[in-house]
Design brief:
Elements lengths: L1 E5 L5 E8 L7 E5 L9 E2 L1 E3 L4 E9 L1 E9 L2 E3 L7 E3 L5 E7 L1
Antiparallel strand pairs: 1-2, 2-6, 3-4, 3-7, 5-6, 7-8, 7-10, 9-10
Length: about 100
């Protein structure tokens, strides 16, 4: 799941990714916006929302992404937009702007 907010007086958008999971998991976010680096964006668990959260600023565009949960790459189950990848699986798709 994600939310998108246009930043005032900027060409950027604030995108907040949210993944519901147990607090003992290690959750990372990866995607085309960081060249699929699996160790760059670790999400933090928010007790109040009972979910992992990561906020990033991105320009308008189309991006593909996945969550990595305890080493397993998964799509965003709350996002119905998908694209096939070169590994025979799917990536979640995020369109901004």
């Amino acid at each position: 799941m994600f939310s998108i907010e246009k930043l005032p007086q900027s060409d950027l958008y604030q995108v907040t990714f949210i993944f519901s999971g147990c607090p003992e998991s290690v959750v990372a976010l990866t995607g085309s916006f960081i060249d699929w680096d699996p160790e760059k964006l670790f999400m933090k668990y928010c007790n109040e929302k009972q979910a992992y959260i990561y906020t990033i600023e991105l320009p308008a565009g189309c991006y593909e992404y996945k969550f990595i949960i305890d080493g397993e790459w998964i799509t965003d189950l709350d996002n119905t937009n998908f694209s096939a990848n070169d590994f025979g699986t799917l990536n979640s798709v995020l369109n901004i702007g």
